[in-house]
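Re: weekly structure request thread

Next one in the queue (175 aa):
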Amino acid sequence: YQICRGSLFGYINAVLNFNRLPRLLQALGRRWLRTLVSMYFDDLSLQDLQTAKGRGQRHIQALFRMLGFPLAPDKHTAMSGSCDFVGLVHDVRGWLAAGYIGLKVRKTTATKGYSLVHSALLNDLCSPGEASKIRGINQVLFQGQFGRVGCAAQSALVQRSYYDTTPCTISSSLR
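Done, posted below.
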């Protein structure tokens, strides 16, 4: 046995533990600074009004720096009306007039998802690893377009990813 003071990749609660810090930082940015910030693991997206002149971005950078988690300068992008974040393009340009933020799936993400599904159907094979990849991309595509409703149809992929054993041929429910 060995004592490990950290969260090792591969353990059941590793992802949950890893996400605690980003969730806390996101909550602090939203509640204390009143910024429209989203975090996914170690990626951050911030939408700010043009009239704020980048204050939200400066405040988030200062908060992270004060807490000991400075943001990498080489990943910094200039503020704009739309941004690409975790496979989705967030567009806030029409927010004040229309009252909503536009979300559009990145074309490369959709193409990658389509090619994985097409390859599995063509070969009539889908390993647990491939099912997990398809499910991960579908999560981005479905949630971006339909919210949590789109994720309901993925139970066959979950079954293949975690419970099915060989053979890896495509079942009727997976098809």
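The mean pLDDT is 83. The first helix runs from residue 14 to 31.
Next request, please.
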